[in-house]
Amino acid sequence: MKVDDIRRSYSLKKLDFDQLDKNPIIQFEHWLQQAIAAELTDPTAMCVASVDEHGQPSQRIVLLKDVNADGFVFYTNLGSRKATELTANPKVCLHFPWHPLERQVIVYGVAERVSSVQVAKYFLSRPKESQLAAWASEQSRPISTRQALMQKFAEVKHKFAQGEVPLPSFWGGFLIRPTQIEFWQGGDNRLHDRFMYKLQQNGQWQIERLCP
Q1: What pTM did the predictor assign?
Q2: Numbered residues of the known binding site
Q3: Out of 103, 141, 177, 190, which one is annotated catalytic?
């Protein structure tokens, strides 16, 4: 089958104003719980798009670790490409692709570092192997072989064999404060339902329907 022959209809649900919460965070939490209840693979997976100093965008999948009234939180190595780019240019876009539900959520916002207390609390809640992996990997940096990576992991595992694994100084988190959030529900004949929430200067959210 040719690529341009691959298509399907979207007809699971409709979306209208009367189904939307006035607060996009509450609306997102509602959809997220439905994605979890539907047992989607990695329902918290999101694409994070950032831009480097040359204007070159880059994307990667990370896992959402908190959502609250302030926004969306994820954690990473602070020396990674995404962390370096978000530090230089905090404008960011998140994308949640819930294909089986024929839904997408796109978040436009500004990234800021979360507190060291919050980072430490989350880091200590991770499985020990994940804590060790954070120490072993210089994320986004070149490495000669996988064997070299596993050797570093073994060395870190031996070093911290006793007691708790300390929080690395190079590991942290980002809060994405949203300025716009789009909710997309697939529709028949490509007539999808799209609604954009835009944050106003008074702190209220304006909702408008977009053409598909």
Answers
A1: 0.93
A2: 7-10, 60-65, 75-76, 81-82, 104, 122, 126, 130, 139-140, 184, 190-192, 194
A3: 190
- CATH number for position 180: 2.30.110.10
Residue 163 has pLDDT above 90, yes or no: no
- Could you list the residue range(s) of the whole structural domain that residue 197 is in? 9-126+169-209
Read off the pLDDT band of 118 (50, 70, 90): very high
Tell whether 191 is covered by a domain: yes
Q: Which residues, in sequence order, are CB contacts of 205 under 8 Å at separation 6+?
A: 22, 23, 24, 197, 198, 199
- Residue 142: inside a domain: no
190: annotated active-site residue: yes
Q: Which residue ranges make up the annotated binding site for FMN?
A: 60-65, 75-76, 81-82, 104, 139-140, 184, 194
Q: Is the pLDDT of residue 128 over 90?
A: yes
